[in-house]
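Before going further, learn to read the protein records used in this course. Taken together, the tokens spell out the fold as the letters spell out the chain. A record is reproduced here so that you can trace the correspondence yourselves:

***
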Amino acid sequence: MTVHNLYIFDRNGNCLYYNEWNRKKQAGISKEEEYKLMYGMLFSIRSFVSKMSPLDMKEGFLSFQTSKYRLHYYETPSGLKFVMNTDLSVSNARDTLQHIYSNLYVEYIVKNPVCVLGHSLDSELFSSRLDAFIRALPFYSPRAA
């Protein structure tokens, strides 16, 4: 069980934060291109889910999986998008993403007068607290399978 990486996007698709823990394979493209591809995929999946759902879904999609990993998704009311990739053994990380938003992002970014909202998250305190939180998760393992 492990966490591979985490993206935080703003409502316009700009990647505000990215970190990886147990990522084995690199994409072979620049990070900026990877961010654009990830956001485009999220945009397309959200659109597809909203059009195909037989019910009016309040939360949209929460996650999807491939044969190698599971992508977990959480969108805030303000349009921030938190995306975490884990291995397949992690069934639901929605509470984890909500915690990252409400207890780490709000506390160390929103309430920090030095941090400018809508720009890259350069807070060392946020990064260190997030890293400690991820490493303390029950499904985090430094030795990815």
